[in-house]
Amino acid sequence: MVLLIGLGLVQIAGLTIHALDRMDVQRMAQTRDAAVRVISMYRSVVLAPRERQAAVVAEFDLRDGATVWLSDLPIAEPLPVMDPAAQRQFRGAMLLVPVPVEQRPREFVLRGGADAEHIAVALRLPEGSKWLNATLEMPPPRPWHSQNFFSAFMMMTVTAAVLTLWAVRRLIAPVATLAAAAEALGRNVNAPPLPETGPLEIATAARAFNTMAGRIRRFVLDRTFMLTAIGHDLRTPITRLKLRAEFLEDDELRAKMLADLDEVEAMVASILSFGRDVAADEPVTPVDLPELARTVLDETADAQPDFAERLSYSGPDHLTVRVHSLAMKRALSNLVQNALAYGGNACVRLVPPEAGQLILVIEDDGPGIPAIELERVFQPFHRVENSRNRETGGSGLGLPIARNILRAHGGDVKLINREGGGMRATVILPV
Ligand SMILES: Nc1ncnc2c1ncn2[C@@H]1O[C@H](COP(=O)(O)OP(=O)(O)O)[C@@H](O)[C@H]1O
Ligand SMILES: [Mg+2]
Q: What pTM was computed for the model?
């Protein structure tokens, strides 16, 4: 905007300067023209014999509203005496007309309006006391007379504006790329690096960004490796503890201990699978999403045959999307398993893509969760109180993993309580 406004101002200033200059030049040409006419009339009168002079004056070919006559006194009113600068200019113009010295007027009076549109000149004839008077029209200067000038000027302005826009866009394009890269990195630490090309400053910024992305990636991976290493190392002592618990005399105590150890073992197992997900650099491939959803439902049904007919899919039969197939399957499977475990059934519904994104809904008819928990359940290991003691075997990592995976795809998952009761998990994926 600033550049365009600046361009506009410069053009206006340029136009004004041009107009003033043109007016000056036209004024000068008019003055010269008038001087030539006046001098040539004067010459004709001076060269004519005295008794023919009046006739010569009457025969002048007058154009443009000019008048000329002979009189005893120089013309006086109504025009005021011409201002000194204009007088100087007119006198200079008369001097430039090439005529012999004796045919030049010795004495003259110049009059002219402030607008200089009419001028009057009185020239004293050499012998006798007669004056040759002439009034001349000087049309106002027209700075914008030429059509071509205007088209050329507009073309120049538009070209300059277009070039400015183009250059600015080109300059700020890398900023948009950087913003997009930062956005992508926020969703997926393994996002591909920025190309380190272009002007020096841009390349430097891209390199700095890539270095930063690399550090973040290493940081995340280090944390995950640490987590999985701990999980891994815990497995042996857990097994040992279980073995030892078997030897407890007290039946009740032994059962409780083994149940607790099972829970710890399940947690460790999900930590390990979480670590595997983060570390896995699975390629993006075309996947038939309805097919994937049906596979998840089938596998869930296989695992829990009693619930087989409480699982359903509705939506298009085929729809290819580009995703990390294993990760996406894990995300869907976590959501379906939750619906089944806490709601007792699972309806998967696929809404065909619209406006660049598709929606996959997983619904159940269970109790749902308190509104305050809707976001908290996405925190690792967070479980709603009443499901803690149930035989569901989860460890509170299912939803965080699902959200992690979906966000890495540029999508997201949200939970809401359905109006008629039950839970709805809404998955949004860009296509
Ligand atoms: N469909 C659902 N209906 C009711 N509660 C749910 C549902 N899905 C998830 N939850 C609640 O969210 C908690 C976190 O889920 P999740 O992260 O999958 O862990 P887990 O299933 O291992 O407990 C669950 O413990 C449960 O309390
Ligand atoms: Mg779960």
A: 0.59
